[in-house]
Amino acid sequence: MNSFDHPINAVVQGASRGLGLAVVEQLLNTEQLAGLVATCRHPQQAEQLQQLAQQSEGRLKVTRLDVTDEEQIREAASFSADQFDELHLLLNVAGVLHDETRDVYPEKKLDDVRPDAALYNFRVNALGPLLVMKHFVGLLADDRRAVIANLSAKVGSIGANQLGGWYAHRGAKAAQNMFTHTAALEFKHHKRTRNAICVALYPGTVDTELSAPFQSNIPNDQIFSPSRAADQLLEVIDGLDPSNSGGFYDYAGESIPW
Question: Hey, CA dihedral for 120, 122, 123, 129, is it positive or negative?
């Protein structure tokens, strides 16, 4: 986090496992980190996250946040405001691709599209990050460097779509990208947030439960461990400048077409 010339406060939304947990671990190893709030749906069940909090000497606090519940998002923002005076880094990590309990899975053809599953995809992947931005933007550092990074997916790129299928997930991630770009434009026109950078980031294929059913056709060297993916994302974030705000970038900092 060398791009910040001062100690930073961060929030990681979706931090109980996988990539989100790895991001928390990486940030805790960063000398620049002053305070960190990590959120998840069920903090009491997040044993690894709670252990990190116990070992953090007070730097890490954990609180509840389900992105499908706006009241919980509002409460998490209020909790974060009690922990630090200003926020410098916000990462929206949580997402859904498949969920057996809700019969949510990537559609192979139009006949597979189901309204309930599609709406849940949009609530988690698109509306969720949008509402988090809505309630946390007031915490951003006043007229100084701050970064909001929303984790997106390459399948949300219309220009890169050559395979079809995955209707709900593609559509939700494309909507998330639009929300990110639109928020970035709003930030530029307000004095308090004019130095804020808001981007969509694609972490690549990360070896987590989300990607596990779909890894068979992906070369092993293109599947990243959560720790490596977290390191790459934070390196990209560290290299961002205001001209990047509103963009869509991959784990190497390369621009992805909309």
Answer: positive
What's the predicted TM-score (pTM) here? 0.92
Q: What is the full DSSP assignment across the chain?
A: -TT-SS-EEEEEES-SSHHHHHHHHHHHT-TTEEEEEEEES-GGG-HHHHHHHHHTTTSEEEEE--TT-HHHHHHHHHHHHHH-S-B-EEEE----S-BGGGTB---SSGGG--HHHHHHHHIIIIIHHHHHHHHHGGGB-TTS-EEEEEE--GGG-STT--S---HHHHHHHHHHHHHHHHHHHHHHTSGGGTTEEEEEEE--EESSTTTGGG-TTS-GGGEE-HHHHHHHHHHHHHT--GGGTT-EEETTS-B---
CA dihedral for 209, 211, 215, 218, sign (positive or negative)? negative
- Looking only at the bridges linking them, the beta strands covering 196-202 and 146-151 are parallel
Closest listed residue to residue 123, CA positions, set 182, 68, 64: 68
Phi, psi at 50, each rounded to 5°: -65, -35
161-174: per-residue pLDDT in tens?
989 999 999 999 99
Q: Rounded distance, CA 108 to CA 248, Å?
A: 26
Per-residue tokens: 84: 């630090």
- Look up tokens 């790895």; give the residue: 22
**What is the mean pLDDT for each group of 10 consecutive residues in the chain (258 residues)?**
92 96 96 96 96 96 98 98 97 90 90 96 97 97 93 95 94 98 96 94 83 62 88 97 96 96
